[in-house]
Amino acid sequence: MSIRCTKSKREYDVTPQQSQFPQVRIVEASAGSGKTYALAKRYIQLLITPCLKPEEIPLNTILAITFTNKAAIEMKERILEFLKKIALDKFEDGKEKENFLASLHVDKEAARKKSYKIMDYLTKNYNFFQVQTIDSFINAILSGCAFRLDLSANFKTEKYYGDYLAYSMDKLIDKAGADKDVLNLFHNFLRHYLFIENKSGWFPKQDILSILKSLYSKNNRFSGRFVRNHIEVKDLISLKKYILNLMTDLTGNLPGGTDKRFLNSLSNFLERNKEGFDIDDIPDFFGRTDFPINKNHEVPDNVRKLWQRIGNSIKELCELESESAYNYYVDILNEVLRELKDITTRDDVLFLEALNKEAQRLLDEKSFLPELYCRLATRFKHFLIDEFQDTSRLQWENLLVMIEEALSTDGSLFYVGDKKQAIYRFRGGEVSLIESVKEHFPAFNLIPETLNKNYRSQREIVEFNNMVFSKENLTGFIDEVKNKKKDSLEFGDSDIKKILDIFEDSRQDYKRDETEGYVRSGFIDGKNNEEIDEIIRERILNLLEDLKERFSLKDIALLARKNNEVALLTTWLLEKDIPVESEKTLNIKENPYIKELISFLNFLNSPIDNLSFASFILGDIFLKTSGLTRQEIHDFVFRIQGKGDEEKTYLYREFRKEFLDVWESLIEEFFRSVGFVPLYELVISILSRFNVVQGFSDYQGFFMKFLEFIKEHEDEHSSISSFLEFFKKAPDEDLYVNVTEGNSVKILTIHKAKGLEFPVVIIPFLELNVKVEQEVVLSNNGNLNLIRIKKGYANFSPRLARLYREEYLKYLIDELNSIYVALTRAKDELYIFIPAKAERGANLAGALFPEKDFERGKKSEHKNPHDKEEILPIEIPPSEYKDWIPLLRDEFIEEGILKDRDKILKGEVLHHLLSFIGNLHNQDKDLVVREALEKLRFQYPSLSNLEEYAATINKLLENKDLRSYLEIRDGEVYLEKEIVDSSGNTKRIDRLIVKQGEVLIIDYKSSKENNTAYYEQMLQYMKIIREIYPDLNVRGILVYLDDLSTEEINAKDRNV
Question: Do 412 and 381 meet the contact criterion of CB atoms below 8 Å apart?
Fold first, then answer.
């Protein structure tokens, strides 16, 4: 007997058998079929079940895993919504209520009381509401086992590893001068780079870094570690010379009737390649079994044997080169990883990319299973996993220990996935896990389910997708792909079955009341890509004019595959004044006012940057506050530039002369403060001084995001120069503003659209473009082998041809999955434009559609979106920011030395360097200084004169008086110690030494200029410290870094 459980839109069966534990439930949910509903409902069923006592609330025994923060929030909201509906009896209709309560197998009153208790329990124990991302869960585990990773319990999780990897690479290069093994490593790499890869660039370091980043990412997605094979570059060079000799022998023995095309290609090949060659340049004729000869001519035995030797040698070369292509990159990677480990341990950092790899490393320690893992395994009884098709094997292995423990103690596993929506394989997603997990738990109560009713789309859209992804249509599509790619692909029945199995459950039913919908697709052809783009542009704009009469702009979404397509579409619409919400318009880097602020920061960082200064003073932010007109500034800039280059003219100096009042009121203080005020406070002061947030309130979200980004990264990039360099390279996805929904057209990538739905979807560039990545990872007995797969190898080696076909098949399935995701986002209307040409030739997407121009259903009736009563948003006044510079001036500003900016930088660098040097008593001073210089180098990557600073520190250590402040025999040393005065203001002391009987306050200053301000500052420090240590003698010493002199401040003489 089964009970049909329905919630207005979703329904699936729950039988008494399904409540038995242990239990593994696999739910395959097609697009729009309600997977979030299924997960949330399962969560409620685990909380409200007749198996539990009324007072029993097993909240802390359930773990729900998602893959994005957004998905975690959505699931939590849905769970809370269900609890409120049950507790308050607020179901949409009677049928929904009846079916939902029936699925819980408890009566209405018991469910209502239990829901109240659960909600009350939730408010008091929200930390037990474990719905979170896989990364946050693994990070929490690692935090509890940090000592096993050589990290502190408060280690930082860092997203960006590129700079660390580059720095580790630099350290390895530095070692080459003294370490012969490292020198030989790079020597062998360069031979491979020049003679095997046939690269000719002067800067191989960039190529190395690019591949190292790719390998580091792959290393963190797979179990095991990369290992090289035995093949050396000299072996490949010898084999290439041998092949060239064989080919030369062949030219002297060519029989009459030899194919002339082969003769020409062989002659050209040997002419171009005297010492070595690239496999891609080998004539395709050598991939044939038989010697190329015309009809009625015989091939002599010696030529036949020579031909076979050449073919076998080329095959061997292809396989050896494929297996060894990354040998030296792997060698360099393993060395770089050792350097990286030292640096990350020192900085107490773990990369987000490496979380799962580090967790696996803990589990692999046979003698030690982390206690935290054991505790969690005994606590969690029920696991729910969302988007299982995007789970990596490494992530699964990290969870498996706990899941097996839960199932062995009457727990459960519930996972939801859709093989057709597996579009994150490039991040390690392993769709085969859906089936392999079934095989892993055969002894448990295994319950497979399929959700095949679509609650998102109208009938015509559902039926259209049923047709496109039907077995018959996909079979025809595969045949056409085979015909177009017959030179390199020979799909077998098993290959075809893999594709068809992915989409075997793609057919969906539609809701009874969703009987409308409209679909239109069309092929776009032209002489070239530019003409095709222009045709699509015209049609998109005309289509939007039509849609605006029936839909609000916010109901329309344009989906693209690539970011450059998003940018192009955004430009098209903005040119026609159509409001757009896209990654381009929501990227703070693209916002005109953020660009003006960046120009100002660039100028403050380098005052001789005339272009940045001109860009800022010609911008709206400056003009609105200064009262000057754009024409005035325009005339000024061009007048100054017209003076010629006899003598270098700095624009800011001329501006200061001509507009002194404006300079002093708006710019002077920032010009003098830069380098002494923290970047976050500096930018807040700029926003305040120029009234930016109030003056441009529509863009408040962009300014907030900019400040948030600065604050988030201020530890690693505290200086303006470091931040500007980082901001320039920061990934776009970290720079988007989260906005509430406005009436604008959405433009986004298909990957970003996954999980979303829109009334109208337009796909302007539907392409199927299979691009096989050359780097392929093969797992072998716990080790990872990296091989190169390319079409050139496949021409000469059957084994590599098979591997190439397997990889091609994976990427083809990726493309089909992306198209499936795109075609299933629409609710009411779907428009598809199929360009005849794709990036790599003919567009294979056309083979999915039997008709060139297709139309079904009818357009939605006029909905009068403009006639709807618009709910006006509540006006919230923009935030006001306090100008921090006056408050921070006493701690960061040294007015006297601002005349010499080089001196400022030197003082700042020395200041930072000394902040890394603690108590040198009984320490290896040379080692401490070297480590401090390494930290300094990482913080100031553009510094080229580190030796100069090292010499200054050594001089300081030679000075008897100064050395006494660095070597403390009996006492405690505090660096950059923060103290708070009676008004709550924070002060920071450079070096605080607490000894028996006295306290020393050491404050570093660049020079003796403006020493009156230094005295006042020191007296404040001494007053605060005297209150903290009333029984100790307090002394204040100023250390001037320009001449390494000292001055003691006498508090009694100054009435402290």
Answer: yes
| E strand or H helix that includes residue 502 | helix 493-502
Q: CA-to-CA distance for 565 and 113, rounded, in angstroms?
A: 53
Q: At 336, which amino acid appears?
A: V
Q: Which of 771, 854, 837 is nearest to 536 (CA)?
A: 837
Please give the sequence-ordered ranges of beta strands (E in DSSP) within 159-305, or none if there are none. Answer: 225-226
User: Residue 418 in contact with residue 386, Cβ under 8 Å?
Assistant: no
Alpha carbon distances (Å) from 296 to 257, 258, 288, 367: 8, 11, 19, 73
- State the number of CA atoms in the 13 A half-sphere of 860 facing the CB: 25
CA distance 747 to 739: 14
* Whole-number Å distance between alpha carbons of 16 and 14: 7
Q: Residue with structure tokens 């967790």?
A: 359
- Give the count of beta carbons closer than 10 Å to the beta carbon of residue 827: 20
Gap between the Cα atoms of 104 and 44, Å rounded: 8
> In Å, how far are 85, 86, 103, 448 from 124, measured between CA atoms?
20, 20, 27, 36
Dihedral over alpha carbons 950, 952, 953, 956 (to 10 degrees): 160
Please say whether the beta carbons of 46 and 58 come within 8 A.
yes
pLDDT tens digits, 1038-1054: 988 888 888 898 766 55
280-302 burial, b if ≥16 CB within 10 A, otherwise e? eebbebbbeeebbbeeeeeeeee
Per-residue pLDDT tens digits for 981-1033: 777 777 889 899 999 889 999 998 887 776 777 888 889 899 888 888 888 89
- Are residues 78 and 7 in contact, defined by beta-carbon separation less than 8 angstroms? no
Cβ of 517: how many Cβ atoms within 10 Å? Answer: 24
Tokens of 118: 């659960």
The tokens 């891609």 sit on which residue?
280
With beta carbons less than 8 A apart as the criterion, state whether 75 and 39 touch.
yes
Question: What DSSP string runs through 278-320?
Answer: -GGGS-GGGGSSS--B-TT-PPPHHHHHHHHHHHHHHHHHHHH
The whole-angstrom separation of Cα 272 and Cα 260 is 18
Nearest to 174 by CA among 162, 164, 186, 163: 186
Q: Which of 729, 731, 723 is nearest to 940 (CA)?
A: 723
What are the structure tokens assigned to 246, written together?
Answer: 């064989």
Q: Residue for token digits 């297709």?
A: 854
Tokens of 645: 């280059």
Residue 894 CA to residue 816 CA, distance in Å, equals 63
Helix, strand, coil % over all residues of the chain, rounded to 5? 55, 15, 30
Instruction: Give the range among 337-341, 916-920, 937-941 with minimum mean pLDDT.
Output: 937-941
Q: Which amino acid is at 727?
A: F
SS3 1049: strand
The Cα 652–Cα 646 span in angstroms is 18
| Length of the chain in terms of residues written | 1056
**987 by DSSP, 3-state: which?**
strand
- Which value, to the nearest 10 degrees, does the dihedral of the CA atoms of residues 233, 234, 236, 240 take? 140
HEC string of 680-716? HHHHHHHHHHCCHHHHCHHHHHHHHHHHHHHHHCCCC
How deeply is 701 buried, as exposed, middle or buried, from its count of CB atoms within 10 A (0-12, 13-18, 19+)?
middle
> At 281, is the pLDDT very low, low, confident or very high (cuts 50, 70, 90)?
very high
pTM: predicted TM-score of the whole model, two decimal places: 0.78
Q: Please report, as a single letter, which amino acid is at residue 203.
A: F
The Cα–Cα gap between 673 and 895 comes to: 8
Among 415, 395, 344, 53, smallest CA distance to 220 is for 395
Report how far residue 1037's alpha carbon sits from residue 1049's, in angstroms, rounded to the nearest whole number: 6
Residue 682 contacts residue 676 (beta carbons within 8 Å): no
Closest CA to 347 of 931, 940, 969, 1010: 931
Work out whether strand 1045-1049 and strand 225-226 pair parallel, antiparallel, or are unpaired.
unpaired
User: Residue with structure tokens 């070692």?
Assistant: 175
